[in-house]
Amino acid sequence: MANLLDKFKDTAIGSSGRVLDFIAKISSRGDFSKLFDVDVIINSWNNILITPKGSVDHDPEYGSDLYLYIFEPSDNNTRDGIITELKSSLLTFDNRASIDDAKISFLRNNKGFRVDVTVKYAGNKSNMTLNMDRSMYESYL
């Protein structure tokens, strides 16, 4: 099965020499949306960060424990813990790119925080934003 997927990805138009992935967001033409290069990595990193550890069958270590910081105090210790968890999770499960910068902002009107990561891949930089709040925590329960 993996060979068929690799063949499909290799023969997809416009994929020569580039990192390519398909996401389940259906386009107006009815096809899956195609992502290239740094956008593939941002999609992968987003999936890692929003997946709680222990929730994936056959790979209980996959994911992150960022959701555990939602109800923590808004202080420097929490900020440092979030950045440590972020870097550890991302570089463990997808090390194709590097983290150029990571900023944590605590939400004022809700329990939680916002993560802004600058991703560096093949000389290009891009930004990724993730909000972790009470509603995300409740969806995990």
Report what the structure shows:
With 141 residues, this protein is an alpha+beta fold. It has two domains: 1-36, no CATH class; 38-140, Nuclear Transport Factor 2, Chain: A. Helices cover 34% and strands 29% of the residues. The protein is built from four helices and five strands, in the order H-E-E-H-H-E-E-E-H. The chain has a three-stranded antiparallel sheet. A hairpin with a 2-residue loop joins strand 4 and strand 5. The chain is globular.
Question: How are the SSEs placed, and which strands pair?
Answer:
Blueprint: H1 2-11, E1 20-26, E2 32-36, H2 38-50, H3 76-93, E3 98-106, E4 112-121, E5 124-133, H4 134-140
Antiparallel strand pairs: 1-2, 3-4, 4-5
Low-confidence stretches: none
| Main beta sheet | 3 strands, antiparallel
User: Percent helix among the residues?
Assistant: 25-40%
Distance between the termini: 33 Å
Continuous helix count: 4
| Order of strands across the main sheet | 3-4-5
Query: What is the domain tally?
Result: 2
Short key terms for the protein model shown above:
141 residues, alpha+beta, Nuclear Transport Factor 2, Chain: A, 2 domains, two-stranded antiparallel sheet, 34% helix, globular
